Amino acid sequence: MKRFILSLLCLLLLAGTGAFAQQTFSGQVVDEHRQPFPYVNVVLLSPSDSAFVAGTVSGDDGRFSLRAPAAGLLLRVSFVGYTTIYKVADRPDLGTLTLLPDAQMLDGVTVRANLPKVRLKGDAQVTTVQGSVLEKAGTGNDLLDKLPGVSADEGTVNVFGSGQAEVYINGRKMRDPSELDQLSSDNIKSVEVVRNPGARYDASVQAVVRIYTCKPQGEGFGFNNRFYTSYQYGWSVLDQLNMNYRRGGFDLGAMLFASDSHDEDNKGLVQETFLDYDWRQESTINSRAHKQNLSASLSANYQFNDRHSAGLRYDFDRTPKDKWDILPLPTIVYRDGEPCETSLSSGWENRLNTSHAVNVYYNGRAADWSIDFNADGYWTDSKTPQDMLEQVTSATGTTEQPVTNRTVRSSRLYAAKLIASHPLWEGNLSFGGEYTYSHTENSYVNAEGILRNDDSRIRENAWSAFLEYARSFGPLQAQVGVRYEHLVSDYYEQGRRIAGQSRTYDNVFPSVSLALPVGDVQLQLSYVGSINRPDYWLLRNSVTYINRYTYESGNPVLKPSLMHRLSLNASYRWVYLNLRYLHVRDGFLYHSGTYSEESPAISLVQYVNTTDADRFYATLTLAPTIGLWSPQFTSMLSKQWFYVDTPRGRENFGRPVGSFRWDNNFRLPAGFQLDVDFWAETRGHDESYRVLRPSWYMDASFYKGFLNDRLSLQLRATDLFNSSRAPLTLYSGNRLMTIDQETRRRVSLTLRYKFNAAKSKYKGTGAGQEQRSRM
User: Fold this and answer.
1) What is the largest CA-CA distance in the chain?
2) pTM of the model
């Protein structure tokens, strides 16, 4: 397999460099804001009869290159919703071509107000932000949370039906979730959501969100400062300062961030386990957290010219305090329906972490070649001390049991990635590879000897290669790709390699994407094979003490989950539809079993591989504009065909879940803006969960800009009526657990001041991201 892939790469390389001795035409397509315009149809025609000669699509940077036998041909540049450009190709360098919105396409109405808010372009669902009501959404996190089928919470972005997304900002992989809060929505030009990422992305990537910012402001020094405070479970504050200095091709950027926050976790919990007896535990959990975080970044970038740039970036993050105080936790224990004892647990846990990350990159073009190289290093160390005291009262009296745990984890990662692209056969070929080395050590010590100590480590070597080819056939845009991944994982205990838990994987993942406009309707069909590799924490061999009846552990023999994803998108003016089907093999499921024959009353919970499952998702969005009112209504449906082992035997968890979202934006006089958003969800099944009752909530925000928006104020209330509480039951083997989580409204205030706030030109995309996320 390795020789085959290397031979294929060599053949394609030779084909791209020596197969044609023709004239090469190249240029770049930009939009009305002078930003790169990808996936544009570029065609050379014969001037005498308009016969097709050659064609391609522009790349992510808007650039294109194609070959033809002679000069003097007619160039046609086109994209749905934009005025087609015709130009005589009288020289090899065709320069910069600007596509403008077509003001005549929608019956003479100006495009600014009536172009589709969501359109399809290449492999992505594209939402235009600049010039729309989304400009005043707040932070980048607030903006993403308003997109159809997308939810964003504190930097974690999920795409409905796909899962957690990787986020790229101007082509650079987002490394820190706080980066979304560093962005202001009025500095974002557009957002692309990719539900089926192609072969150039790691096969474990479930979705991709690509954010493109507006053209940077002038040179010199600029800064952007944000102060945020909120009240939910006590006051939380943060302050963040972004600084940038630009002169000519040199760009220096820095960020300082500090936060102090308070949180609580209050819920009712009922656990039933069916072991030697039927055990039932009824608990009330109340815990309070105080977290402090410090982070900083420094980046240097030099753009030699419009074809070559290089840079270096360093990120530091430290959590000196993340302490959870567990208030006295009362539990009543029943055995076969009769109360047998009570317990009272209390204590604390502190989650400390320090991480460093370094990225170096080169991005350039040589003749018709585009090259993107990244090298990454990542180092993280964490400590989690935990002290608990458990008091148990039964018919024989009261006993006390201290439980003292210490967990220390250390992870190291080194990675390199190279992507190259070149025109080939009237289209564009991209290929590349990635290598990652990672090493994770885990130490767990229980002072009382209740649980077995753990000293384990995982060492992995992974490399991958991909090929991706894109070409236009008239209005049809086609993209096909294949990705090969090879991973060797070695598992060690007490310094000794455990052969039964060390594995080697070889996987091939194909991908296909087709996009076609039919009149004003845009259609997109895509398929991709993907994988979900378990986090290192899920592979640990240590056992964690929950209480005297429940232990939790990792599962070193947990296998990766393989998936087939099929997606159909359709867009028409202000209507957007997505239909999605997934087939999952060896999925992950939280499962409970007996801890040991010697302790039949104790259950052990861990993730295991489950049976195959099929899932269907549908999203329909309507987003018209009615005067000063811009509503957006989104309806989402999820349905699964999934069997779960329960105490009553295997059951079909197939009841669908409906979600509904109604966002409303009102543009008021004097530059004020009001947002009122509603969300609701029905009962139903989600994996092994059963949602017991419907829930809903309402959010509201108020925005006002001053001094030409250099100073802005945003007041926001989340879950205004405190109505999002939704009890659910988790089924896991011989155990079922009903959780009734407390919810509480949050009120926040954001003040932002910016001066000449230019965005960094840093173009590093990062390497080893899939392995790093598993750490």
Assistant:
1) 101
2) 0.75
